[in-house]
Amino acid sequence: MMTAYLVLLLAVVAWKGYLACRRGMKTYHNDRLMHDSLREYLLGNGATTWQSLWPFYRHALQRAFLPLLSMWRLWLLLLLLGVLVVWLT
User: Fold this and answer.
1) What SS3 string covers 44-56?
2) Residue 3: pLDDT above 80?
3) For a designed S-S bond to 60, which of 6, 28, 55, 76 qualifies (C-beta 3.0 to 4.6 A apart)?
């Protein structure tokens, strides 16, 4: 029973992580295609390469991980299910 729960938990976490990573990469790619003039503007005004890419990274990270943080009910349910499984075994 404990092994089945762990497999289920790892599968859910891996799937959610995969979807978040994919969502972040798509956001970064689309932002770079649509708003590359922002990067050129920042580079022209003395920003380093990292500083010119930071707005794209920040938006991609927010788009990827904020939905995961808002799924608190799912994480609470998985935690309670885990406590129940440990208590029963």
Assistant:
1) HCCCCHHHHHHHH
2) no
3) 28
b/e sequence 45-70, b meaning 16+ C-beta within 10 Å? eeeeeeebbeebeebbeebbeeebee
Region of 46 on the Ramachandran plot (φ > 0 left; ψ -120 to 50 alpha; else beta): left
Q: Is 28 helix (H, G, I), strand (E, B) or coil?
A: helix
Of 25-34, 36-45, 64-73, which gets the smallest average pLDDT?
64-73
Q: How confident is the model over 47-57, as pLDDT tens digits?
A: 998 899 999 99
Distances (CA, A) of 79 to 17, 30, 61: 17, 35, 25
